[in-house]
Specification:
The complex is a heterodimer of chains A (630) and B (333).
Chain A lengths: L2 H31 L1 H17 L3 H10 L1 H16 L6 H10 L4 H9 L8 H11 L7 H4 L7 H17 L21 H17 L3 H18 L5 H16 L2 H19 L6 H8 L3 H16 L7 H45 L7 H47 L1 H63 L23 E9 L5 E7 L61 H11 L4 H19 L5 H13 L5
Chain B lengths: L2 H24 L6 H12 L4 E4 L6 H12 L3 E5 L6 H5 E7 L5 E7 L6 E5 L6 H13 L1 E4 L2 E4 L5 E6 L12 H4 L4 E4 L5 H11 L13 H13 L4 H13 L9 H6 E3 L3 H17 L7 H12 L4 E2 L1 H6 L3 H11 L6
Parallel strand pairs in B: 1-8, 1-9, 2-5, 5-8
Antiparallel strand pairs in B: 3-4, 6-7, 10-11
Classes of the chains: A mainly alpha (630), B alpha/beta (333).
């Protein structure tokens, strides 16, 4: 081996030893400083678990953990970049092998230029080179596991165990939001179930049937306590909206369209019956008249004259265009109003003082109002045109065909009759929807009233319902219950013989006696035996034990007679039935008949506006409560 | 033969001579290997040594033996309080010649020898001490207007008795500094005492013979000077020296607390020269840090001055230097 090779070998060994020394130093530094961030993490994690810190509170502590981490990084970096002795590696080799710096001296002297190198230096170099083969950097600079790694290991294990530790936190579970179902008395539920059944039976329009089914489902959900008050009202509102839709608007528009048709068809004798029926909204008659006209046209004998046909043709033609003409007129009028508006605005702008004059403003407001009115009219005309479009088409076709082929015209008229039939059905369906709407409104009002009464009200209604079905011994006339105005007492006073019934058997009907001398029950509250508290805001539900009042104390020359009704075989008198209902409940065929009579009168009065609007609900409610039960 | 090979031969020859010297000295001096090597180092370093030890340890015998094996002129000066400078350096006397002519003639004192043993040097007055120390430093003596050179090699071995401090004149620090090494002569061990008794109380009488000539000694001294020192070794010696100063960057706490003044640059010279000699003793061609460490104690112990606190605490300079050697890392270059 040449000296230069030897020196190179020495250098390689020295560099390797130097790198190992640096690595060992870095390793030692890491082992020394790593416990800092680990220890900090252990402390913070312990605090987090023990004190149950939330994410926001934890954040600052974890951010502060950057300090020990930085300390570690800086410490390691310092070791990495620290200036080291040039011959650290070779010195380590010399020390390990016991070479007394022979290797280092050789490397040092090898850097001395040849001219300056002394013989002893050269000898030292050669001496060092001779040792090259014996150098062992691996053993000379061992990278040992520092003792501090034990601490690191313990901390890592501790951190792992701590992170797995679950400190259970008892979090009080918030009480679920209270769900207070909407409660309706069973009696009312039965009422509305009956209503739904009735509507379902009457309806054949699919749309209306769908609405009835939704209503029925709503009743069932209320019965099952699945809905709270808010949901019930929401669903009622949705159903109402869907039912109403554009019901009224479409109906008005259709009526207007039919009136327009009637006006034109009236001008021909042949179509006059149809016109009259349309004008009076008797759609079934209008359909029939149109079909008769079609038959007449088909016949070869007894056909109308040419003049009559021509008149008919003109009437049909004008009738088919009536809706369109109407829309055009509205548009024309609208355009005129727009022009007027523009002119008024221009006048206003041209005024030197800013254009504000009362007269001009009044004209502008008036113009605005008329424009709005025209918009509404146009909307109606549009709806009408839409609904009458098929009928208009048929009539127009019929008018065209009339002069060429009366038979064909007849077919067109028959199709027109079918359109009228469709409209009639639609009208019927609308009526059914109106009825369902009315029931929904009744239900809403009922729920509003029930909401005011609270739990006591519900319990009373429940008891009432039982008595109404004759299910409880409610015939004793318990105080504070029953129907009618709130009364005091309510005690039975003994039977009053009213005469003989069938077979001359006296009928004993319990008549409660009122404690007052008026013969009228006094108004009061709901409480049994409650004191006279004055007029009540609600309809009473107490029982007047003294329906007839005290007997009149007449001081006169009279003599008592006993009157008894003759049994005509027509059944019990209405009063008997009513008295009986107070004991037995609202059941039985007799009661049903009596109820129907009274209800008919009441409905008539309601429809004829004989009852003030504020009382209508109460009247209806009264009859609902006393309705016959199965 | 290349120069390197020649150098190797020189070193080998050196080693051989040293071996012969050791062997020959060992025939008379029992043990004290370190003291002998120290003395040889001082001699080969062209400098002087201070031996300290209790009486009867063979200090004088060692010097005599050394002079015998080296074949060099030897003189012994017993320092006493009444010793005058002229007693050691010489004086001018009036000499009468054959014809009766009288002339002034300088009569050389005992300092004019190759090897001078200055026994109990601390017993003489500072004036007398300084006369010796001047000769040690200058290798010449000036008397009147004439200067007389002392021949080479010139080696002074001074001794001190650590027990008798009363009535003595401790050498001042500046003068202590001129001694290359201060060697402590230990009390012999039991076995060594047996050998000493055997040799000195019987008819045995060892005679030493000259094994190295004067020229050879000079050659050896020259070779020592030629031994190269790597930069890191020299740096280490300097760092050790600086560490003896309380203000030194790497001075340990012991130095900062108990040392008044650290060693002078002569300490580093002594360490490095001593390291070179040791390298040659081992047959190596360059001095090492270990060599410096080995010579640090002898080279610095008399150069480190303790503070009052250090003296009160009874801190020995040796302990301070050992602390420095222990704490100082091997290399920073």
């Amino acid at each position: 081996m040449t000296p230069s090779d030897g020196i190179a070998q020495l250098r390689r060994a020295a560099r390797r030893a130097g790198r190992r020394a640096r690595a060992a130093a870095v390793f030692r530094r890491i082992a020394l400083l790593l416990p800092l961030p680990l220890g900090y993490s252990v402390v913070v994690l312990t605090a987090v678990k023990a004190l149950r810190l939330d994410a926001a509170s934890q954040r600052i502590w974890w951010l502060l953990g950057a300090v020990p981490v930085l300390t570690l990084l800086v410490g390691v970096a310092r070791v990495l970049v620290a200036r080291r002795p040039s011959w650290q590696g070779s010195i380590a080799l010399d020390q390990f092998h016991g070479f007394h710096d022979r290797v280092t001296s050789a490397l040092t002297f090898s850097q001395v230029p040849d001219a300056e190198r002394t013989p002893l230096m050269q000898a030292a170099i050669e001496d060092g080179v001779a040792l090259a083969g014996r150098l062992d950097p691996g053993r000379a600079v061992p990278i040992a596991f520092p003792r501090e790694l034990g601490v690191t290991l313990v901390l890592v294990l501790g951190l792992g165990a701590l992170s797995q530790l679950e400190v259970r936190r008892i979090v009080p579970v918030p009480a679920p939001p209270s769900f207070e179902p909407m409660v309706m008395s069973p009696d009312d539920i039965d009422l509305f179930r009956d209503v739904a059944k009735e509507l379902q039976a009457k309806n054949d329009d699919p749309n209306a049937l769908v609405a009835v089914r939704r209503f029925n489902q709503l009743i069932e959900d209320i019965a099952e306590h699945r809905l709270d008050r808010h949901e019930v009202f929401q669903r009622m509102g949705d159903l109402e909206r869907d039912l109403k839709g554009n019901l009224e608007l479409d109906r008005d528009a259709r009526d207007e369209g039919l009136k327009g048709l009637a006006r034109e068809l009236e001008k021909s004798g042949l179509s006059k019956p149809t016109a009259n029926a349309l004008d009076e909204k008797r759609l079934a008659d209008a359909e029939k008249a149109l079909r008769e006209l079609a038959e007449k046209l088909k016949k070869k004998e007894g056909r109308p004259s040419a003049a009559e046909l021509d008149k008919l043709r003109q009437a049909l033609e004008k009738a088919s265009r009536s809706n369109e003409e109407r829309s055009k007129n509205i548009d024309q009028r609208r355009r005129e109003l727009e022009e007027e508006r523009k002119s008024l605005l221009k006048k206003k702008a041209d005024k030197p003082d800013g254009g504000a004059t009362p007269d001009l403003d009044k004209k502008l407001a008036d113009n605005e109002r008329r424009l709005e009115h025209l918009d509404r009219e146009k909307d109606r005309a549009g709806r009408s045109q839409k609904q009458m479009s098929e009928l208009d088409k048929q009539l127009a076709q019929a008018a065209q065909d009339l002069m060429r082929d009366a038979g064909q015209s007849a077919q067109d008229l028959e199709q027109g009759a079918q359109d009228i039939n469709r409209m009639a059905k639609q009208e019927a369906s609308e009526e059914q929807k109106q009825e369902l709407l009315k029931k929904l409104q009744e239900m809403r009002e009922l729920m509003r009233q029930q909401g005011k009464g609270g739990k006591d009200q519900r319990e009373r209604m429940q008891r009432f319902g039982q008595r109404a079905r004759g299910q409880s011994s409610a015939g004793q006339g318990q105080p504070g219950e029953g129907q009618g105005e709130g009364q005091q007492g309510g005690k039975k006073n003994g039977p009053l013989r009213l005469g003989s019934g069938p077979g001359s058997v006296p009928i004993e009907i319990p008549v409660p006696v009122s404690q007052s001398g008026q013969g009228q029950g006094q108004s009061g509250g709901d409480k049994p035996g409650g004191s006279d508290t004055g007029p009540s805001q609600n309809y009473g539900n107490g029982h007047d034990s003294n329906l007839t009042g005290n007997a009149t104390d007449l001081k006169g020359q009279t003599k008592d007679v006993t009157a008894a009704g003759a049994d005509t075989g027509q059944g019990a008198a209405a009063s008997q039935v009513i008295y009986g209902a107070a004991e037995r409940g609202f059941v039985g065929r007799g009661y049903k008949q009596v109820f129907t009579d009274y209800q008919t009168v009441a409905e008539r009065a309601l429809n004829q506006d004989e009852i003030p609007s504020g009382y209508r609900f109460y009247v209806r409610r009264y009859f609902q409560l006393i309705r016959p039960r199965e | 033969m290349t120069e390197a090979e020649q150098a190797r031969e020189e070193v080998a020859e050196f080693q051989k001579r040293i071996g012969a010297l050791r062997e020959e000295i060992g025939r008379v001096i029992v043990g004290n290997r370190e003291v002998v090597d120290g003395v040889l180092s001082c001699m080969l370093g062209s400098s002087h040594a201070l031996l300290e030890g209790v009486p009867g340890l063979g200090k004088t015998m060692l010097v005599r033996t050394l002079a015998g094996v080296l074949g060099l002129e030897f003189s012994r000066i017993q320092f006493t309080p009444d010793l005058m400078p002229a007693d050691i350096i010489g004086t001018v006397v009036l000499d009468e010649g054959a014809g009766g002519a009288r002339s002034l003639e300088f009569r050389r004192g005992p300092v004019f020898a190759n090897i001078v043993l200055a026994d109990e040097v601390n017993r003489a007055t500072p004036k007398t001490q300084s006369a010796l120390l001047e000769a040690m430093q200058e290798h010449r003596v000036t008397v009147g207007r004439s200067t007389h050179t002392i021949g080479e090699p010139y080696f002074v071995l001074a001794t001190q008795n650590p027990l008798e401090m009363e009535g003595t004149y401790p050498l001042p620090e500046a003068q202590l500094d001129r001694f290359f090494f201060k060697l402590s002569v230990p009390f012999p061990s039991r076995d060594e005492l047996h050998a000493i008794i055997d040799r000195t109380t019987t008819t045995q009488h060892a005679e030493v013979k000259r094994v190295v000539t004067r020229e050879q000694v000079l050659q050896m001294q020259a070779l020592v000077r030629r031994v190269p020192v790597a930069r890191h070794v020299q740096d280490y010696a300097i760092r050790v020296l600086l560490a003896t100063h309380p203000t030194g960057e790497e001075a340990p706490d012991l130095v900062k607390r108990f040392v008044r003044t650290g060693a002078s640059p002569r300490g580093a010279q002594a360490m490095l020269l001593g390291a070179k000699v040791r390298a040659l003793f081992d047959g190596r061609f360059a001095a090492s840090i270990d060599d410096v460490k080995a010579t640090a104690l002898a080279a610095l112990r008399h150069r480190v001055l303790l503070s009052f606190e250090g003296e009160a605490e009874g801190i020995a300079p040796d302990r301070v230097i050992e602390e420095i050697i222990k704490k100082l890392p091997g290399s920073k270059e």
